Amino acid sequence: MPRTNAFIVRASDQVPKHPLLKRFPVPRNFGVTPGSRIERGRTWAAPAGAVRTKAFEIYRYDPDGDDNPRLDTFEVDLDACGPMVLDVLIWIKNNVDPTLTFRRSCREGICGSCAMNIDGTNWLACTRYIEETGAPAQIYPLANMRIIKDLVPDLTHVLAQYEMIEPWLQTTTPAPDRERLQAPEDRAKLDGYYECILCFCCTSGCPSHWWNGDRFLGPAALLQAWRWLTDSRDEAAGERLDLLEDPFRLYRCHTILNCTRTCPKGLNPGKAIAEIKKMIVDRQS
Amino acid sequence: MTRYRIQTPLGRAVGLGSAKSGFGHWWTERITAIALVLPAIWFAASLIAHTGTDYETFIHWLAKPINTVMMVLLLVTLFWHAALGLQVVIEDYVHSVAKIWALIVMRFACFALAAVGIIATLRIALGA
Amino acid sequence: MERMTTKRARPLSPNIQIYRPQLTSVLSIANRITGVALSVFAVVLAIWLAAAASGPAAYSQLQTIIGSWPGQILFLIATFVFFLHLCGGIRHLVWDSVRAFELKQIYASGWAVVLLSAALTVISWLLSLLIAGHS
């Protein structure tokens, strides 16, 4: 784990000792439509005999009922479950409430399935230590997403935005008989971008995407756009920039940098977007 | 959100397509920002230097050509930069038809206030 | 495709209601708020110049307002707002040239902007009071 400093954050996985504020000073239901309001849920007690317990507040939503989302509290037996937040969810599903629904696969931070909002910031449940969470720990689905069930967000729209940037190699030159050549230094330009696992922690944490997500592509899609713009083998840079140059699609990014702060892979979507803007400057002047 | 409109996810994401513009606004906002640095610092320094001065001193100071020029430059860049910045704020938060009206009113107000400030400065400078 | 049989619209998960304020988002919204505030002060500047152009009476009336306690407090806030937007704006221009994007740099420059703005506010008020005392 990186060294913790009260004021300077060195890496995105650093949980600050003294957070500025727990949440923005806005009413709980600020701008929330009636159907999305979160109600108080039930409390699930720890199993008898549990010694070390910790409370986890978890967002629940059942699409088959008529009830609003609610916040359940689970008393978790820390001695019976693994060290990560994902272990807590699996423990609850196995031992307390089998209906608790969430996505998970690799449990080692490479699939991006278990991205969720833990203690107010987006991260992968499988790479966040329980000991780094507050008391009670608060677990919500990725922010600003339509929720299918419990912690499972509907990623249809953000994936469509990813599809929009045409994330594949485009050439007019007919495909060669052998592999496409790329200089090592040009290959190095993809480092820090190709590693994106599409967990959408960044896009879900971007205030600009909250207010204009229907038109603003968001950091995840734009980082991928840069990954193809900077690929020396690609021949469609012009078309790609035409597609992006729009007051909303690209320029709704105001360099807030919540994306770079939250990326669980330590990538830099904010920098990628700045690179795109600079490329457009180069094209114009 | 058009909740019940049946549309493919890609169709919804593409929307009305790319405007193929946006660079101009973004670039001008940066240019006006750079242009503002000097007049803004000049203005702040002048305010400090003029704490508690009377009318005559102030008029005499503003009528000096260098100060007149700086004040006019300040007014032009300030309201230009403000208009561009406020445009983004309105576009970010206003999603109804009120957006277009807010943009129009805001832009008119910026132009008008810049004109008021410039004319006032010139009147003082020319001793009207 | 979404199910056509959904009984109700899917709820939207909370965003600003739960997302933790971080230096990144806090300074971004601060830059926006100060920008809007400075636009309001720009209106005051235009009115002030118009008052000065229309003669000593209107000008001295405005000076009285600015010289009053509420006016002075507002002016102090305006000074800090001005420096925060200026320093924050320069930080943005650095980013626009694709520099200082490491998280450590983002945080260091963020705190630097806050401290520098506070320091410049104090310095300019001390200078201003010093000059006022001598005239």
Uncertain segments of chain A are none
Helix-strand makeup class of chain A: alpha/beta
Query: Structural class given helices, strands, pairing of chain B?
Result: mainly alpha
Total beta strand runs of chain B: 0
Instruction: Tell me which CATH architecture of chain B applies here.
Output: Up-down Bundle
General shape of chain B: elongated
Global outline of chain A: elongated
Work out the number of β strands of chain A. 8
Distance between the termini of chain A: 44 Å
List the helices and strands and how they pair.
The complex is a heterotrimer of chains A (285), B (128) and C (135).
Chain A: E1 39-44, E2 53-60, E3 70-77, H1 85-95, E4 115-118, E5 121-124, E6 137-140, E7 147-149, E8 152-153, H2 156-164, H3 184-188, H4 201-204, H5 207-212, H6 218-229, H7 237-244, H8 258-262, H9 269-284
Parallel strand pairs in A: 1-3, 2-6
Antiparallel strand pairs in A: 2-3, 4-5, 4-6, 7-8
Helix pairs in contact in A: 2-6, 6-9
Chain B: H1 9-14, H2 23-49, H3 55-62, H4 65-93, H5 98-125
Helix pairs in contact in B: 2-4, 4-5
Chain C: H1 23-53, H2 56-67, H3 69-96, H4 103-134
Helix pairs in contact in C: 1-2, 1-3, 3-4
Could you walk me through the main structural features you see in this protein, from its secondary elements to its overall organization?
The complex is a heterotrimer of chains A (285), B (128) and C (135). Chain A has 285 residues and is α/β, with parallel strands linked by helices. Chain A folds into two domains: 34-152, Beta-grasp domain (Ubiquitin-like (UB roll)); 156-171 and 182-284, Alpha-helical ferredoxin (Fumarate Reductase Iron-sulfur Protein, Chain B, domain 2, Orthogonal Bundle), CATH 1.10.1060. Helix content of chain A is 27%, strand content 14%. Chain A has helices at 85-95, 156-164, 184-188, 201-204, 207-212, 218-229, 237-244, 258-262, 269-284; strands at residues 39-44, 53-60, 70-77, 115-118, 121-124, 137-140, 147-149, 152-153. In chain A, the strands form two sheets. A six-stranded mixed beta sheet of chain A has the order 1-3-2-6-4-5. Chain A has a two-stranded antiparallel ribbon with strand order 7-8. Chain B has a single domain, classed as Up-down Bundle (3 helical TM bundles of succinate and fumarate reductases), CATH 1.20.1300.10. Helix content of chain B is 77%, strand content 0%. Chain B has five helices and no strands. In chain B, helix 2 crosses helix 4 (65-93) and helix 4 runs antiparallel to helix 5 (98-125). The longest helix of chain B has 29 residues, at 65-93. Chain C is an all-alpha fold. Chain C has one domain: Up-down Bundle (3 helical TM bundles of succinate and fumarate reductases), CATH 1.20.1300. Helices cover 76% and strands 0% of the residues of chain C. Chain C has four helices and no strands. The longest helix of chain C is centred in the C-terminal third of the chain and has 32 residues, at 103-134. The N and C termini of chain C lie far apart (75 Å). In chain C, 35% of the residues are buried. Chains in contact: A-B, A-C, B-C. Chains A and C meet through helix 8 and helix 9 of A and helix 1, helix 3 and helix 4 of C.
